Amino acid sequence: MVSRHINRQRFDVWAFICPVEYNLVFDIKSNRWAYNTPYKIYTSYLKKKKIEHAKLRYNLNHLDKMNPYEFEVFISQGLRSIGYKTEVTKGSGDYGIDVIAKKNGFTIGIQVKKYASKVGYDAVKEANTGAKYYKCDEAWVITSNEGFTRQAKEAAQKIDVRLFGIGEYALLLDSGNKKSNVLRV
Asked: DSSP code of 148?
């Protein structure tokens, strides 16, 4: 209870220093218009700061120099550092799964995309199909940028594929290093 009070005080100070208007936005999850309150904007700001720090901590700012295979190996090594046993699949004919990660009897099939633009629906579909082929418990798509198309997000939500931009992946590594038994973010 004390930490909530402290966070609320930090928010009040932040809102006083950085006055913002209420922004009208369309919320895709609830399918309705909603207002972004200053508190939502503040928590969004805090998440962005955490992502920035995690990206620096795990040296994720040099990804543009990697080719797609090196990026797959990089993702595999990151998951290995937080306790997963990982395997990078062969390049072609991998049925859409680039990395297979296992921990505590739980298997994850991961489609890794090194794109400069947003990742689309096809990556979600391939991850789902490949995860079924390799008999994985869960399917993930990890991309080198932060973006997924609206169709990809909607499909992922319906067919239970988890989407990670590079920032969310950095937070996963960060939480995995703090907790030894992490399976979900």
From this structure: B
CATH 3.40.50.10860 fits 62-178, yes or no: no
The pLDDT tens digits for 136-161 are 999 999 998 878 999 999 999 999 99
Token pair for 153: 């997000």
List of residues 6+ apart from 85 with CB closer than 8 A: 101, 102, 103
Question: pTM for the complete prediction?
Answer: 0.71
Tens digit of each residue's pLDDT (9 = 90 or more) over 71-94:
999 999 999 989 999 999 987 777
For residue 147 the two structure tokens come to 């973006």
Where does CATH 3.40.1350.10 sit in the chain? 62-178
Do 160 and 132 form a contact (C-beta atoms < 8 A)? no
Long-range CB contacts (within 8 A, 24+) of 169-175: 169/60, 169/75, 169/78, 169/142, 170/51, 170/54, 170/55, 170/57, 170/58, 170/60, 171/50, 171/51, 171/54, 172/82, 173/54, 173/58, 173/78, 173/81, 173/82, 174/50, 174/54, 174/57, 174/58
For residue 122, give the H/E element and its range: helix 121-133
Question: CA-CA distance, 20 to 49, in Å (whole number)?
Answer: 18
